[in-house]
Amino acid sequence: DLDRLLAAVGDGLVVASNRQPYRHDYGDDGEVTVDRPTGGLTAGLDEVMRRVDGTWIAWGDGEADAAVVDGDDTVSVPPDDAEHSYALRRLWLDEDEVEGYYYEVANQVLWPLCHAALGTVESCGDAWVDYRRVNDQFADAMADAAADADGDPLVWLHDYHLALAPRQVRERTGAEGSGESRHVGGPSADPTLAHTWHIPWPGWDTFRACPNRAAILDGLLGNDLLVFHVPRYCEAFLRSADRGLDGTAVDFDAGTVDYRGRTTTVRAAPMGVPVDRIREQADSAEAAGFRAAFRKNRGIDRDTRLGVGVDRLDYTKGIVQRLDAIERLLAERPAYRGEFTFVQVGTESRSAIPAYADYQDRVEAAVERVNDRFATDDWRPVVYTTDYVSDEGLAGLYREADLGVVSPVRDGMNLVAQEFVAAGGDDPGVLVLSDQAGVHDVLGEHAVSVRPHDTEGFAAALDDALSMSERERRRRANALADGVEDDDLDSWLADVLGAVASVASPDGGVPTR
Ligand code: ADQ
């Protein structure tokens, strides 16, 4: 199914995201080093792009002197696989643009707003100019790539960094406002625009605090298709479109918004993970080696039971609440002392933003507090590391763990929960999962659910998970494994491209435009 859909899209696929799939660092001596993608969205989309000859547009965030890369906007990637190459077009942003677009509007307004963290939203007047300007640059590149495409162009935008760009593309392709395209640049000038929003869409009562809410909605309604992870976010978006912008006609049952002569269809497609690849990684000799070495190097006894958490160090991920619950568990159930160790892998993220630097400090302080309170000469309750861990190492840790603990206070989907399930082997662990993550809407029934701020309940859930009968544990793990397998990364891609096809040609089938 995916192959058929990809064949229909063919060379007309243009992907636009803030993050690039390959990062090029240009040394003074002319040497170029290329970093490979790690996990998550970019790796998944990279696999799709290898199967079509399209264009990927992203911020060129490598180490580069403008003089060195001047004129060199587009490179062919992947570097080691010419047979499956596609074009990566980099946008070179200056420091002020990065500050305003990325650090301020994207990550200090839209990110906290969409995660309902209003107290963390910063006011940033001038930064909107940078956000608009960078979106403009993306729109220029998208319109160019669409005009150059051989087939029917499909532009697939990603995330909250690019909220204004869909409208800006319409302005460039002459299809603005009239409801019909004027095709200034030839028959393929008015592309199909699909946009996946990877984070939550908040309730109207939260979204209405957005300083530029009308512009954000107007921008997103330039899309033909807008995709969220779960129906909750679709409903919330439709409500925002209804209340936050004049001139919209919202059909809540059909999931559509008519506005400025165009219909935007709003759909849910929960993102999945590459289950087969993760399983292979967990089965690998490298993973087995990593597990053994990790226990040895971190002083974790062979018989000690393990819990694991893997997160970017982001205040939405609920790491502090998780550590509070572990402390409560050890305080109230002394039998776990010496018998259970929690491993937290934290990846530094957006550290230039004060709220993130503070959060890193709070996580470290919580780790120290729990360890100071309970550690003995030969046992530490929490092992915390910010070291780089390879995909195989991560899969090995997941497989080694008795518990996977995913406890965000708010999360669009969360891929770690699914990776943990996919990596489970013959003796799978228990997934402890926050009901505030999008993935809970899909897998929550078979996980042990927690509400991250309910420390008492969270501690009790950890106890339940650790003392669960083998039969119950296997029953849940099998149901979870079936769920992540059925809705894996390929199935998500097919869902999105299928939705694109039905929007581009409403009678179903492949796009005919
Ligand atoms: P994120 O907030 O980044 O993604 P998540 O879905 O958990 O959150 O994905 C993180 C990815 O990074 C996972 O694939 C994980 O394995 C990887 N990762 C994290 N720490 C790592 C480490 N130390 N070493 C190696 N890999 C590591 C946003 C949204 C989510 C949504 C995704 C996809 O916030 O809600 O699920 O996009 O849509």
From TrEMBL:
Gene3D superfamilies in UniProt? Glycogen Phosphorylase B (3.40.50.2000)
Q: What is this protein called?
A: Trehalose-6-phosphate synthase
The UniProt entry, under PANTHER family, shows: BCDNA.GH08860, TREHALOSE-6-PHOSPHATE SYNTHASE
Q: Its Gene Ontology molecular function terms?
A: alpha,alpha-trehalose-phosphate synthase (UDP-forming) activity
Q: Which GO terms describe its biological process?
A: trehalose biosynthetic process
CDD domains from the UniProt entry: GT20_TPS
The record's Pfam families line, in alphabetical order, gives: Glyco_transf_20
* Species whose genome carries this gene: Halosimplex rubrum
Q: Which residues form a coiled coil?
A: none
